[in-house]
Design a protein that fits this description.
- The chain is an alpha/beta fold.
- The protein has one domain: Rossmann fold (3-Layer(aba) Sandwich), CATH 3.40.50.10320.
- Helices cover about 40% and strands about 15% of the residues.
- It contains eight helices and seven strands; from the N terminus they run E-H-E-H-E-H-E-H-E-E-H-H-H-H-E.
- Helix 1 crosses helix 5 and helix 3 packs across helix 4.
- It starts with 6 loop residues before the first strand and ends in an 18-residue tail after the last strand.
- Bound molecules: zinc ion (ZN).
- The site of zinc ion has 5 residues, from loops.
- Zinc ion binds next to loops.
Length: about 240
């Protein structure tokens, strides 16, 4: 199987991509690119919902975002570790999906699964390109890796993607995970829970949007420096 994706987002839990870079994913799909998601765990350790429910919700969100592919590696939730077998599993998927660009979670943060996914995701991208490694398929290394930093809002991003036009769809994809924001207590009063989520998603998107003079945005970091061809057409006003 070879899918030749343009972009692959690798995330620790179903709903991480939607929350951190769902608008960017939707924008990339709308631009005509083939975008896929690789969730590393089923989120079975989450305090709300369960793995089966999250799977249904993930499929619903995938449809909303227009993904070409989504699959779950079923590593243990709250157990993503720096293990060679995990890295090789991810590397095998990268060889099959052959993405040009990979989105990873930032390599530091509060939740160990998130930053571990960023670290082993990077190493898997490297391993996927090593011809002599015991993996199936042709070697493949993504050309670009960008790190999503929304879960670390204090961090200054390298760049921000304007998701103003995609914001409502992003919110719809996030809301597909209704088990995550409505427990039994909340069920009696679902609307405020939804409103609270909407407000949180919107305020973060607004915060990063303001950095580039847009309404809503999503932040990213790259380790390499961006090159500029034309200093007259550089985006974002200085004054
Ligand atoms: Zn997560």
């Amino acid at each position: 199987m070879s899918l030749d994706l343009d972009v692959l987002s690798i995330a620790a839990h179903p709903d991480d991509t939607e929350l951190t870079c769902g608008g960017t994913v939707i924008k990339t799909v709308e631009a005509g690119y083939r975008v896929g998601l690789l969730d590393l765990t089923a989120g079975e350790s989450g305090t709300r919902g369960n793995a089966g429910l999250r799977e249904l919700e993930a499929a619903k969100a995938a449809k909303i975002m227009g993904l070409a592919h989504r699959e779950n590696l079923l590593l243990p939730d709250a157990g993503i570790e720096d293990r060679r077998d995990y890295k090789l599993k991810i590397a095998q998927k990268i060889r099959e999906l052959r993405p040009r660009t990979v989105i990873l979670p930032y390599w530091e943060g509060r939740h160990p699964d998130h930053y571990a996914a960023g670290k082993i995701g990077y190493e898997a991208c490297f391993y996927a390109g090593l011809a002599r490694l015991a993996l199936e398929g042709r070697p493949h290394r993504p050309r670009k890796i960008i790190y999503s930093t929304l879960y670390v809002p204090s961090l200054r991003p390298t760049f921000v993607v304007d998701i103003t036009a995609q914001f409502e769809k992003k919110l719809k994809a996030v809301l597909a995970y209704s088990s995550q924001f409505s427990d039994r207590k909340d069920m009696q009063n679902l609307f405020p829970a939804r409103e609270d989520l909407r407000e949180r998603v919107a305020s973060l998107a607004r915060h990063f949007g303001l950095m580039i003079g847009a309404r809503y945005g999503e932040p990213f970091v790259t380790t390499e420096v961006a090159g500029v061809e034309d200093i007259v057409k550089m985006p974002v006003r200085s004054i």
